[in-house]
């Protein structure tokens, strides 16, 4: 039996004749008759009593009709609402801590205004962990920063940020116009954890110069490091946007380091084999637009 046969038979019962059923189904009367006969043959019993040129549904037909109606209604409801399933499926987003602090909330709010029916689940973790989650399909989209070289990932740039060394104005390092490289080891450093994009940027720059520093404070939270710097506990490496108000007010001052200027690129990433749903295409358009506005095409 097929759903088409069921729908034709339902129309015959509800319209009271083969002719009227054919009209509402936009079929010929012989075609309707053929479908019902075919259904009867498959069932092994008749559904209509045929007397001369007239036919009427019999008791077996009525019993089948009452069982078919709720099934067909459920199928038709499914057909009508399937288009919304994709929009209603939660989109899994992973973000590095820095991006989650500074860019992601406004991006998510903008996306939600465009796709209000699409729910989102956000996970915040280290940049390297976000890359791993995208690779193993634990998240659909990742927002990460710094170096991202995996060939199987699609990377869309959308902004970049400068990293700045800051301390309180009365911290000893503040009196130096530029810190020499041989002075770095003796400083009290307030740094992000190893594996974070900000820490990787610093470690890479120091590794090239064969320098190692040991942090006095190490944290997954940049705000913690900013507060430690404000308390006069050392030199923190932070996104410039995060400390711009404190630099402007004089609560913090920038420390220049000989030959070291650091900047991180922000990316939206997804696996190249990932099916691009309407929601993912929407995010791509939003990120491309944001990148264009920020000069990161």
TrEMBL record:
It holds the Pfam family LysR_substrate. Keywords: DNA-binding, Transcription, Transcription regulation. Gene3D superfamilies: 3.40.190.290, Winged helix-like DNA-binding domain superfamily/Winged helix DNA-binding domain. The keyword Transcription regulation applies. The keyword Transcription applies. GO terms for molecular function: DNA-binding transcription factor activity; transcription cis-regulatory region binding. SUPFAM superfamilies: Periplasmic binding protein-like II (SSF53850), Winged helix' DNA-binding domain (SSF46785). Residues 1-58 form the HTH lysR-type domain. Belongs to the LysR transcriptional regulatory family. This is LysR substrate binding domain protein. It comes from Holdemania filiformis DSM 12042.
């Amino acid at each position: 039996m097929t759903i088409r046969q069921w729908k034709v038979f339902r129309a015959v019962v509800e319209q009271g004749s083969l002719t009227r059923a054919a009209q509402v189904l936009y079929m010929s009367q012989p075609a309707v008759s053929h479908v019902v006969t075919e259904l009867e043959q498959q069932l092994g019993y008749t559904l209509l009593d045929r007397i001369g040129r007239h036919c009427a549904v019999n008791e077996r037909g009525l019993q089948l009709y009452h069982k078919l109606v709720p099934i067909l209604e459920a199928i038709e409801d499914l057909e009508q609402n399937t288009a919304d399933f994709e929009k209603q499926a939660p989109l899994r987003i992973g973000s590095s801590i820095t991006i989650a602090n500074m860019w992601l909330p406004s991006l998510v709010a903008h996306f939600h205004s465009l796709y209000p029916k699409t729910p989102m689940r956000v996970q915040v973790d280290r940049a390297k962990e976000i890359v791993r989650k995208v690779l193993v399909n634990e998240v659909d989209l990742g927002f990460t920063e710094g170096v991202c070289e995996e060939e199987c990932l699609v990377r869309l740039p959308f902004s970049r940020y400068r990293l700045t060394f800051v301390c309180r104005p009365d911290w000893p390092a503040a009196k130096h116009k530029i810190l020499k490289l041989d002075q770095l080891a003796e400083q009290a450093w307030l740094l992000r954890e190893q594996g974070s994009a900000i820490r990787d940027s610093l470690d890479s720059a120091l590794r090239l110069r064969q320098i190692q520093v040991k942090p006095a404070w190490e944290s997954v939270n940049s705000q913690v490091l900013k507060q430690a710097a404000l308390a006069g506990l050392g030199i923190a490496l932070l996104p410039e946007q995060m400390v711009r108000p404190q630099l402007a007010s004089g609560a913090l001052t920038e420390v220049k380091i000989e030959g070291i200027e650091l900047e991180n690129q922000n990316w939206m990433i997804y696996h190249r084999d990932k099916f691009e749903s309407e929601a993912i295409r929407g995010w791509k358009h939003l990120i491309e637009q944001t990148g264009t506005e920020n000069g990161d095409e």
